[in-house]
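I am writing to request your help with a piece of structural work I have in hand. I set the record out below, with my sincere thanks for your time.
___
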Amino acid sequence: MSIGYHMLNTSTTLFSGAVSFLNEPLGGGLQADGLLQILESGTTTSVPALAPALYESNYQALVATAGCSAAANPFVCLQTVDMNTLINATNVLYGQPTLFGSRPWGVTIDGNIIPASPSVLTAQGAMYVLDHSIVAALTFFPFSASAKIPFIVGDVMDEGTIFVKPNTIATDADLLAFLQTDYANRNASFFTNATSISTLTSLYPNDPTQGSPFGTGNVTFFGAEFKRGAAIYGDIHFHWPRRNFLNIAAANHVNAWSFIFDQFTPTSAAWQGVFHTGEIPYIFQKFGPADGTLYTLAQTTLSYWLSFAYNRNPNVSSNGPTWTPYSNKQNNIVFTANLTSMQPDNFRIQGTK
């Protein structure tokens, strides 16, 4: 999902929008127009970027399922088949995650827009090193030495729940099988050797009181280990990438602020918790005065966004507590209806190292 808008040279993007927004400048795909950035639930390493060859088997399966195998040019065939045929063929791949992965299509290292692995480039600091033999035209990126553009980045508390819901995870074997589907088309098996399994299960014990949605006690919703899987998924794809991105920014003296949105909305299902995209109704002011503290929270959240857009700093004209930069003490501002406050960014810290 991607949501973006511009306000006085400010871009706000969500998940795949944030990932795409940050990946494109790696190859000079965007111009250095000085956009400030508010990144909701996504950074350069939220989803893996793969070489095209790793998608080849998925592509061939799509060609066959769409009835294009015998065509002189299968790609042109895919471009011209009936829309419903293509949709149905795509759904066939998504319906078989053990064969094609839970994400059959994803970010591709094309050598042009994305010149190399974003995770490797991020770790190397290629976003701020002026070595154009490593990566070109990076003046737009927030870590660039010529334009260290400030940014806000954050997650909701229960990022993983809606990505796990269709899976009834009842046993350790179910959990590991679910996690492995995310790597099915990547020639990687992170959860099949004894060492990695032991580390994973010790960091994320089979205890529903420690699972996501957090703060829901012993309720398991869809299976004994659903909440365990949701906690792990959220940390792999959201909380670790956010921390990694922020730590690199701090090391390079880029002004950055981190947030966690932790307000459950009464219209949400209990199993969702504070789910991925759950902050959007607050950012876009879907609550009115009759909604009481939810309305107040929406107003407070927006005040930080507007202050950042106008002042390059979320604190100048906000109506909440002082939001300190991440580089100060590695703190998040945590948004809740009862109390918005600064808190240490140390939850499940061992699992995201």
